[in-house]
Amino acid sequence: DKVIEMTDVWKSYPNNVRAINGINLHIEKGEFVYVVGPSGAGKSTFIKMMYREESPSKGDILIDGVNITKLKHKHIPYIRRKIGVVFQDFKLLPSLTVFENVAFALEVIEESPSVIKRRVMDVLDVVLLKNKARSLPSELSGGEQQRVAIARAIVNNPEVLIADEPTGNLDPDTAWGIMDILDEINHRGTTVIMATHNKDIVNTIKKRVIAIESGRVVRDEVRGSYGYES
Ligand code: ADP
Ligand code: ADP
């Protein structure tokens, strides 16, 4: 089953930068995919279009068979339920506790307090942070903050977890810990798509590699390697 399908996708920004130049691909349910390529190649644009942070100038993007390029604004919650996102800089709310940061996404969809409590503690367990539920982000290490961000991204049980350079701000040991968790989430059935510059990780934990250069897919390998010097 395909979870993401892109057909003839192009993206120009208003300043006429042509970030994506004709991408066709699909990603199957349950895959783990690295997105690699030089800075400015279009990796962020490519993944931002999957959760409609950016819209293509041309072409179609289907998430679970639904064409998100044609969705009306009021249907954007559909995408939020299907896709969780984590960023290099975590983007946690600094005045909320770990529990509250993760619960936020469920409160928006008006789940009951008991469901929220159970679900939040379940995902904090997955990221090994149950004992930090009452902490503030500022009291956590970078790796712990990223794990909170991952918990927040999966608390709605999305089909896909997208990670844009999730280890970019972390030291190597901490980065490997994040990979263990992403691997675990993938083994539980979530499709994981990760843009990364981490050569060691890509070359060690072998997965599908999609390489993007100048807005085009230049390489797509089932158990690929990083393929760049650094
Ligand atoms: P990568 O993630 O591989 O570094 P990006 O997708 O961020 O690449 O950028 C691809 C190209 O699009 C670059 O030339 C970048 O400067 C440009 N770009 C990215 N975002 C915007 C934007 N919001 N407005 C204009 N140009 C952008
Ligand atoms: P990322 O980690 O997502 O690649 P960037 O540092 O590339 O972040 O971009 C930060 C923000 O600035 C993003 O929202 C991106 O869309 C925007 N941006 C990136 N390149 C450009 C550009 N050339 N012109 C305008 N906005 C840009």
Automatic annotation (TrEMBL):
Matching PROSITE patterns: ABC_TRANSPORTER_1, ABC_TRANSPORTER_2
Entry keywords, A to Z: ATP-binding, Cell cycle, Cell division, Cell membrane, Membrane, Nucleotide-binding, Transport
Name of the gene this protein is made from: ftsE
Pfam families with a match to the protein in the record: ABC_tran
Localization per record: Cell membrane
Coarse class of the protein's main subcellular location: membrane
Any one GO molecular-function label of the UniProt entry: ATP binding
Function: Part of the ABC transporter FtsEX involved in cellular division.
Protein name: Cell division ATP-binding protein FtsE
Keyword Cell membrane: yes
Membrane topology qualifier: Peripheral membrane protein
GO biological process, one term: cell division
Family assignment from sequence similarity: Belongs to the ABC transporter superfamily.
Domain ABC transporter: 4-230
Gene3D superfamilies cross-referenced by the UniProt entry: P-loop containing nucleotide triphosphate hydrolases
Subunit structure: Homodimer. Forms a membrane-associated complex with FtsX.
The keyword Nucleotide-binding is annotated on this UniProt entry: yes
Coiled-coil intervals, chain numbering: none
Protein source organism: Halalkalibacter hemicellulosilyticusJCM 9152
An annotated GO cellular component: plasma membrane
